Amino acid sequence: MRLPLRSFSIFRSLFSHRKQTSHPQRRGLSGVGMRLVQFHRHGEEGSIRVGVEQGDGGLGVVDLKAFDPSMPSTMRELLGLGDEGLQCAQRALSSGQCVLQRSDIRLLSPVLAPEKVVCVGMNYRDHCLEQDAPIPKEPIIFSKFPSAITGPYDDIILPPESQEVDWEVELAFVIGRRGKHIKEEDALSYVAGFTVANDVSARDWQMKRNGKQWLLGKTFDSFCPLGPALVTTDAVKDPHSLGVRCLVNGDTVQSSNTDQMIFRTEALVAWVSKFVTLTPGDVFLTGTPPGVGVFRKPPIFLKKGDVVECQIDQLGSVINKVV
């Protein structure tokens, strides 16, 4: 479907991060705010390009490789260049050259084939309360396979193996540089930017099947719509004060604010980097607020023909039809 492009000690130390911080941090990589996208031209589906949106996502897209042929064609490669790549993207945007009209392109997920998709469970207090679950004292980490990622306006495919597919609007962020054992006070300097995700979930496989391990229920193909843009950290005023909403067929089913997150971006980067090395392009999904279908009375699940829109202030919307 094509839609318009709009759109104590451990506990105390971790839980307190949602109300921090008084000390300054370096935010982002290049210090410049942009909206980065991946796309292909219509008729050139095998040719992925990286672009920079003009304005606030409503104007054209600057083709980065057309501006500078030495630049890479994918977001992971661009982020791997560090400040050099982002500075080139800023020059391209400032030039006003190599602009493509929205009608000539299709937006893809801002990151494809990341090394890791790191997900956080029960990271909103009210989401814990709606399922009568205790408030976590440390982040609950699971994952999706990267193959679950799909574009901001692509279809969500209902698998025949599941009858209980559900929605989850989530703030996502993308790692911009390699790091291990990252200090919390340095964490934002490892984050390239933020985007919108829908952590689509097959509740029967998540909660009843597969030994109640979450992975299979979370990782069917198309179960991670992402986009529409990677909004660089310096373009987001405060990632922990953003309105978050999910609508199904135009009706609001989730509405919250990222200030309700238990563990914030900085705490998540520091925590996960204790265990694994983070690399450019790694995607984090930071958890969903209350309002998911499975905990409604009676439960509600997605059906063919539904349209799910996940919105986050300053970032945009992903809009996906269920097929």
Automatic annotation (TrEMBL):
Signal peptide: none
Pfam family, one: FAA_hydrolase
Keyword tags: Metal-binding
Presence of the UniProt keyword Transmembrane in the record: no
Presence of the UniProt keyword Metal-binding in the record: yes
Similarity field: Belongs to the FAH family.
Gene3D superfamilies recorded: Fumarylacetoacetase-like, C-terminal domain (3.90.850.10)
Domain Fumarylacetoacetase-like C-terminal: 116-323
Protein name: Fumarylacetoacetase-like C-terminal domain-containing protein
GO molecular function list: metal ion binding; oxaloacetate tautomerase activity
SUPFAM superfamilies in the cross-refs: FAH
GO biological process: oxaloacetate metabolic process
Organism classification: Eukaryota, Metazoa, Chordata, Craniata, Vertebrata
InterPro entries registered for this protein in UniProt: FAH, Fumarylacetoacetase-like_C, Fumarylacetoacetase_C_sf
